[in-house]
Structure formats: structure tokens, C-alpha cells
Specification:
The complex is a heterodimer of chains A (108) and B (324). Chain A is an alpha+beta fold and 108 residues long. Chain A is built from three helices and three strands, in the order αββαβα. In chain A, strands 2-1-3 form a three-stranded antiparallel beta sheet, with helices on one face. The longest helix of chain B has 29 residues. Classes of the chains: A alpha+beta (108), B mainly alpha (324).
């Protein structure tokens, strides 16, 4: 299957949205990362930031907003995730919990 | 049984079923049965349309709310509803239907929205009843949807539910204030509760026996509880709340059933429900007419914003060319 066919159909054939789609990321307070909050439509980046403020921070949820055009986001291939993320599997020794010999020893 | 159902499931179908069985979530890029996708688009977009149309019965009272504080609260609530509509449109969009298509379906009458919003709001007390009963019923319905099997829908619902509890409490407070006021205010509150009680109970949809799609939605874990179960839960919730308010719920059959451990309640007028659904409610015509007018009158704003964005883009490109 071609890569493009594996994606969720973002736009129906023959139709075009009035305004492009943006993904919104919000930093809830200083010291934390921007986290994906959702998406919205806006004609340009400035309006996207303003709409994001009205849509996603009505109760003081954020101190900073990022907006990214949705079409600019590149995704790992969902169908190939087994192989793609394989190198992390079966390597329990990467976790501290793998090492049990030191269980009773303080500060270890 | 059709031949498609009889043949062995494909690996994609098995993977989908595994996600459902494991109580995992289906995400936009996953394969899903067409019927699952269609059901979700219909349910989520109807829900979004309900939020958008739902701004009108309350928007109607913003200018006449009895104090500056009440006006500010009502505006915040209506703004939340616009926001909820947008969260839900975003969720539906991930299934491959454009926002513009969904708007068109609402404006043309092809798509439905909750029939509760086709009732009128003649008195200020209706702002209280909408918050307490209508938003209360909505919360009852929506909390289990936070665990819906489709990821984007569940995430939108989490955000919505967080905000809805303010809606219900402010409605309760309006009614409580009226019930502690003059005889006339108490009467106004009671009459409003009389108007909204049955329509609020009907928000959960037809009885289980007459809701053929419910079974499938529950098997897909979009819905977690049946219409009748949710309705029962809601009745059990509002009975003690009505006591605190001091209002009477307009149902002679309402009463505690020791054996069932639930409140019994009377038969609802499903004929009225079907009439409103068929477009013959108090306000069906005006709700859509208002929505259409707002959309058409706002067209120049959308156009202007797009033209401005295009010009900015062109200016930037020209500048970059010059630098290069």
C-alpha cells in the first residue's frame, strides 16, 4: 500500500476547506513543555494564535501557545510501528527495575 | 448474514477488534470499519451541531440577564458552547469529513442536532433550568463518552466535561436564588422546571427497545451505557437536587422504588419527541434561520481574513526572492 493511502483521509476529494487547519500546543506553566491541546482553523498564524487563546485557554490553562500548520507535521508510519519501535523492545536492562540485586541496599 | 460478515476477518479487522476488546483506543490513522467511521461522524457532528445551535436559547437572554454578573456568566457559558462545538468538529474532522461539509449539512437541514434546543426560553428561569436539567442530562450522557473507543472523541469529551460542571452549577444557583425570592419568582422557577423536566429526560434518546443503533455503538464501545440506563441515573440524580431547590418535578408517577433501588418515573411523550425531531418543535425553523443568517453575514469576514493571509504570504515570498 502506498504511504499516502495509509494516512487518515484528511480532506474529502474535491472539497477544500475555507481556512487551513493548525495544531495547537500549550505550555501550562513555566518549566513545563508545550503539550498538544487540539486543532483549529484559521486563515494565518497570527489568527491561529488568537483563536487558540480563545479556544484552549479560557480558564488560564496556558502561559504560551505554539501553532503549527497541520500539513507540516510528519508522522511515523503507524502500520510499520512494530518494526519501527522494535529496538526498544526486549531490552528490560534499560530500566532501573531490571536490576534487583541491590534491592535492600539504601540509596540505590 | 452478508457474505462479508461470513468470510474470515482480515488482519485489519482483527487488529481493530483487538483494540476494542482490550479497551484500547482507535486513532485516526488506524484502519476501522466503514460503519464505525460513519457512526462516529454522524454522532460527533450531531453533537457539535447541538453545541452550536445550543448557543441560541441562552444567547437570547444575554442582554436581559438580571445583573452584570449574570450577563458575564451567561456570555462565558455561551462562549464555552462555541468552544465545545469546535472541539467536536475537530474530532469529527479526523475521520475525513471536512468542517465545511459538516457546516453545510447543518445549514441545509441534512444533519440533526439535539431536539432539546428547539424549545423556547420565555423566562429568565429557563436559564436556570437549562443549566440544571439540560446540562445535567448532557453531563450524564457525556461522562461515559470520555472513555469512547475513538481517541479524538474521548479527548474532546474530557475537555468538555471539565467545563460543563460550571454550567450545571450556575443553572442550579439561578433556580435556588429564584426559589429563595418572591412568590412570583418561585412560581417562575417552578413553571420553568415543569417545561424542561420531560424534554430533558428525552435527551437520552428513545427507549432501548426502539434504539436499534445503540447495541452496535455499545459493542464498539462508543456508547458505554444504554439510553434507559442513563435516563435512570439522571432521574436518581435530580430527585434529591429538586428537594434542595424546593421545586416539584412534574411527574405523578415519580417515586422511590425500594425493590429496584431506583426512582420510578412516568412514561414520556415520545410522540412529542418525534414531532420535534421531524422539525415541528417550537423553534426548529428560527434556530436554523438564525444559524444560516450568521453564517452568511459572516462570509465577508472569512473572505477578508483569507485575502489578508494570501497577501501576507505573497509579500513574504516576494521579500524572500529579493533576499535570494
Amino acid at each position: 500500500m502506498a504511504e499516502s493511502e495509509k494516512r487518515a483521509p484528511s480532506v474529502e476529494a474535491g472539497t477544500r476547506e475555507t481556512w487551513p487547519l493548525w495544531e495547537v500546543f500549550i505550555r501550562s506553566s513555566r518549566g513545563l513543555s508545550h503539550v498538544h491541546a487540539g486543532s483549529l482553523h484559521a486563515p494565518d498564524a497570527v489568527m491561529a494564535v488568537r483563536n487558540a487563546r480563545d479556544l484552549y485557554t479560557r480558564r488560564g490553562e496556558g502561559v504560551s501557545i505554539w501553532v503549527v500548520p497541520s500539513e507540516q507535521i510528519t508522522t511515523s508510519d503507524v502500520d510499520a510501528r512494530g518494526g519501527f519501535f522494535e529496538s526498544a523492545e526486549g531490552k528490560e536492562f534499560r530500566h532501573a527495575t531490571y536490576y534487583t540485586a541491590s534491592e535492600e541496599v539504601p540509596h540505590l | 448474514m452478508t457474505t462479508a460478515e461470513a468470510s474470515a476477518p482480515t488482519p485489519e479487522e482483527l487488529e481493530f477488534q483487538r483494540l476494542i476488546d482490550e479497551d484500547s483506543r482507535v486513532e485516526p490513522t488506524d484502519w476501522m470499519p466503514d460503519a464505525y467511521r460513519k457512526t462516529l461522524v454522524r454522532q460527533i457532528s450531531q453533537h457539535a451541531h447541538s453545541e452550536i445551535i445550543g448557543m441560541q436559547p441562552e444567547g437570547n437572554w444575554i442582554t436581559r440577564a438580571p445583573s452584570l454578573k449574570r450577563k458575564a456568566i451567561l456570555m462565558a457559558k455561551v462562549q464555552d458552547e462555541a468552544g465545545h462545538g469546535l472541539y467536536l468538529y475537530s474530532a469529527a474532522q479526523t475521520l475525513g469529513t471536512t468542517r465545511d461539509t459538516m457546516y453545510e449539512q447543518l445549514l441545509s437541514g441534512a444533519a440533526k442536532y439535539s431536539s432539546i434546543f428547539n424549545y423556547t426560553t420565555p423566562t429568565w428561569a429557563d436559564m436556570g433550568s437549562i443549566g440544571w436539567l439540560v446540562d445535567g442530562a448532557a453531563i450524564c450522557n457525556q461522562v461515559p463518552l470520555c472513555r469512547a473507543s475513538y481517541g479524538p472523541y474521548g479527548r474532546a469529551m474530557v475537555r468538555i466535561c471539565k467545563e460543563e460542571s460550571f454550567h450545571q452549577r450556575q443553572g442550579f444557583e439561578i433556580l435556588l436564588t429564584l426559589m429563595r425570592g418572591s412568590d412570583e419568582q418561585r412560581r417562575m422557577a417552578q413553571e420553568s422546571v415543569n417545561r424542561w423536566y420531560a424534554p430533558a429526560l428525552m435527551m437520552f434518546g428513545p427507549p432501548d427497545g426502539e434504539s436499534p443503533n445503540s447495541q452496535r455503538s455499545m459493542a464498539w464501545k462508543i456508547k458505554r451505557f444504554s439510553n434507559d440506563d442513563l435516563r435512570q441515573r439522571f432521574v436518581d440524580m435530580i430527585v434529591p437536587q429538586a428537594e434542595v431547590l424546593g421545586v416539584t418535578l412534574p411527574d405523578p408517577d415519580l417515586g422511590w422504588n425500594e425493590e429496584r433501588g431506583h426512582n420510578d418515573f412516568g412514561e414520556l411523550d415520545w410522540n412529542e419527541f418525534n414531532e420535534v425531531l421531524a422539525g415541528r418543535g417550537q423553534a426548529n425553523t428560527i434556530r436554523i434561520a438564525n444559524r444560516r443568517a450568521a453564517h452568511e453575514e459572516g462570509a465577508w469576514v472569512r473572505e477578508a481574513a483569507r485575502a489578508y493571509a494570501a497577501r501576507e504570504d505573497a509579500d513574504r515570498s516576494a521579500l524572500l526572492e529579493k533576499v535570494a
